[in-house]
Structure formats: C-alpha cells, structure tokens
Amino acid sequence: MPIPKELSLTPEQLDEMMLSSWNMRIASVGPGERINLTPLWFGWAGGKIYTYCRGQKVVNLRRNPAVTVLVDRNERFPELQGAMFQGKAVVLETAEDEAAEPHLEEIRLQMGAKYAGGHGEPSEPRRNESTARGRHWRWVVVHPERQVTWDNHKITPRN
Q1: CA separation for the pair 67, 103 (Å, rounded)
Q2: What is the pLDDT of residues 89-108, one digit of tens each?
Q3: What is the dihedral sign for C-alpha 110, 146, 27, 73?
C-alpha cells in the first residue's frame, strides 16, 4: 500500500534531511544475485545522490547499475522520517568523467564541510579531494527514477 501523500516530506524537508544526515544505505546486486547493502557517506545536489566508494560496491555497480538508497532518521515509529530512492548508479571512471559531472564540485565542498573531522582529522571544512584511483575507488552518482518519502510526525494519533 503506498504511503499517503499527506505523510510525505515536503521538498524543503527532503533537502534538509539529505543535507544534514550523515549516512545512507545503498543496496546493489552483488555476486550471485545477492543483495549487497552498505552504509556510506553521501552528498545531495540536483536531485541526485553522490558518494565516493571502493571495492565490491563499485564492481557491483559496473555490472548492474540498479540501486536502492535509503536515508532515514529517528528510532521510534511516531518520529520516523525517511526517503527511499530507486534508480540507476553511474560510476565516474575517470577524472574527465568527474569534470563533466555538473554538481560534483558542489558535492566536494558540501561533503568536505559535512564530514569535517569525521575520520578523526582536524574539523575545519575543506574540499573533498577524492578522485578516481586504482581499480575500484570511484565517485558514484545515483540518478533516482522513483522516490518515496515519509514523515511519521504527520500521522494523526489515534484516541
């Protein structure tokens, strides 16, 4: 059963959640058709989700770009807010691919501020310098084709 429209996040609420939440979970198809589910840091711009990742996730996305991303917050049912995106992921294979991506510079600055100090380094915001390297370190852009959002704060309590 679909979530009633009146329980959805507004575009402003969605942007606020996507820009302030630290972790997303991304599901891809792994080896042998098993689902691979991974928490990752991410950025949000132009209606797309950006992440820098490595290893099996990149291998999976090269083979099959279908993904589902979940960003949610809070623990108790009346407080849950979230967004689920289904779409296709594009692996940016080269520095040229990165340069051609219109929002990547914004994402580099956004993530550099959002995650400053997250690895225990100094907490001053700085540009995320990550770039394609080795066989499997890559920027990935998720192009949502379907999204579902919810804000359980909007549910009218039963008496």
Answers
A1: 20
A2: 999 999 999 999 999 999 99
A3: positive
